């Protein structure tokens, strides 16, 4: 029996779904499988054939309009004109690597570092979040002299050899590194602890002790501060502080993977980690910083980075190229000029309230939680037992697709709808999303 990945396979098209497809869609899926191989996955039992995007909306080949409630690649909105213009103008002039002098990478770095705590004063660039996290692990090991990395039980940090070995969400087919240790997610809905911060810090210490018992020196704790793959776990604010204190007390560093919670996503703060009042040693980011142009970054405290950078040259051919930097600068400028952090806070709070109001109509909604435009909508068999209802969650996202709303699931049980629209999502879109959810649950008899 084939192994399943919790992040890739939970909401995915499978060969047995092919019978229900129209002829054109079935031909495309078969051609894709033949040419691209079996590692790739498509969303939905009936895959969506998208051809155009604008803002928070997408259109399929038949002309149907969809509300995108999942995409943080086009973080400020699909096909944002500011990004299109910046990339076009720079492409007309020059695109090359970072071994020549160029102002764009310096100007952007100054602007980006200005959004971080003062102690973060160095920037490096890659193309993907996987590359950024891969480098961060190398930095952690150089600084600490150790190899042990701690992540949460459902974490996803990338697809390189180092990062896949620290990404349990990839499933049992992808073995974890012998130096990786897992901590249970800081799930305020399911963890019965009087103080979640104390509980989580003690779980970190347990794994550091286990490393020591096995002759592994601790290097660092790598975490997405909204624990998105673990089911979107944003609260209470500040619960990460004691865990980071434990990490430092044991000689390790804290790597904040901001690919998902960064760039104004949570509304409260520009960076997800800032909601917890912590200063990471290293920050990694990717998808949202380029709005569809492949670019990622690693930001760090200079003395932490020096352990690696003073000894090992680093070069990434496309990392930090002028076109990528033009896209990234456009994104940063749009976030500020359009007030997207405050927009995320205000619109996200209204969306959260209206989603929570659905709980009075549907007993299968166990919990609704979030920060800004990043919300977890948890479905259960009954509220008393909190038994996860994965089957219902998968049926709901298929129903939502029928109502032209696109999203997916997260969490170790696959029962949490991950609602993370582009920041272009408006107050006027709330009725579409909430109405579609209400209809979907009603149609499913729940």
UniProtKB/TrEMBL annotation:
Names of required cofactors: pyridoxal 5'-phosphate
Single Gene Ontology MF annotation: pyridoxal phosphate binding
Pfam families (alphabetical): Aminotran_3
The keyword Transferase belongs to this UniProt entry's keyword annotation: yes
PROSITE patterns: AA_TRANSFER_CLASS_3
Gene3D superfamilies linked: Aspartate Aminotransferase, domain 1, Type I PLP-dependent aspartate aminotransferase-like (Major domain)
InterPro entries recorded: Aminotrans_3, Aminotrans_3_PPA_site, PyrdxlP-dep_Trfase, PyrdxlP-dep_Trfase_major, PyrdxlP-dep_Trfase_small
Keyword Transferase assigned: yes
SUPFAM superfamilies membership: PLP-dependent transferases (SSF53383)
Keyword annotations of the record: Aminotransferase, Pyridoxal phosphate, Transferase
Family of this protein: Belongs to the class-III pyridoxal-phosphate-dependent aminotransferase family.
Protein's name in the database: Aspartate aminotransferase family protein
Species, as recorded: Pantoea wallisii
């Amino acid at each position: 029996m084939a192994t399943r990945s919790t992040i890739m396979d939970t909401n995915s098209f499978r060969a047995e779904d092919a019978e229900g497809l129209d002829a054109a869609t079935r031909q495309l899926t078969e051609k894709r499988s033949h040419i691209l191989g079996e590692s790739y996955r498509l969303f939905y039992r009936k895959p969506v054939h998208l051809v155009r995007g604008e803002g928070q909306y997408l259109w399929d080949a038949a002309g149907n309009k969809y509300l995108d409630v999942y995409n943080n690649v086009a973080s400020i909105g699909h096909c944002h004109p500011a990004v299109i213009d910046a990339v076009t103008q720079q492409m007309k002039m020059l695109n090359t690597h970072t071994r020549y002098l160029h102002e764009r990478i310096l100007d952007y770095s100054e602007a980006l570092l200005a959004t971080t705590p003062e102690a973060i004063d160095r920037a490096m660039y890659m193309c993907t979040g996987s590359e950024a996290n891969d480098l961060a692990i190398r930095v952690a090991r150089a600084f600490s002299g150790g190899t042990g990395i701690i992540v949460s039980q459902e974490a996803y940090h990338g697809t390189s050899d180092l990062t896949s070995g620290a990404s349990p969400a990839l499933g049992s087919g992808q073995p974890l590194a012998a130096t990786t240790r897992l901590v249970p997610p800081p799930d305020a809905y399911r963890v019965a602890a009087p103080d979640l911060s104390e509980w989580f810090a003690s779980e970190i210490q347990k794994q550091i002790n286990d490393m020591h018992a096995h002759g592994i020196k601790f290097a660092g704790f790598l975490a997405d501060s909204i624990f998105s793959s673990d089911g979107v776990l944003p609260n209470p604010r500040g619960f990460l502080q004691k865990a980071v204190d434990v990490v430092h007390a044991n000689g390790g560093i804290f790597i904040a993977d901001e690919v998902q919670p960064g760039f104004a996503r949570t509304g409260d703060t520009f960076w997800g980690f800032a909601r917890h009042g912590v200063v990471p040693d290293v920050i990694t980011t990717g998808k949202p910083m380029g709005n569809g142009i492949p670019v990622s970054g690693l930001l760090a405290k200079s003395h932490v980075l020096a352990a690696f950078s003073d000894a090992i040259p680093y070069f990434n051919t496309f990392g930090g190229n002028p076109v990528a930097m033009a896209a990234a600068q456009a994104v940063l400028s749009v976030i500020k000029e359009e007030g997207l952090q405050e927009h995320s806070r205000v619109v996200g709070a209204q969306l959260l309230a209206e989603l929570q109001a659905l709980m009075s109509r549907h007993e299968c909604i166990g919990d609704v939680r979030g920060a800004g435009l990043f919300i977890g909508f948890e479905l259960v068999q009954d509220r008393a037992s909190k038994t996860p209802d994965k089957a219902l969650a998968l049926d709901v996202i298929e129903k939502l697709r029928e109502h032209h709303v696109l999203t997916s699931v997260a969490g170790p049980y696959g029962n949490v709808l991950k609602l993370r629209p582009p920041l272009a999502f408006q107050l006027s879109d709330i009725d579409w999303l909430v109405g579609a959810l209400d209809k979907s649950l009603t149609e499913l008899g729940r």
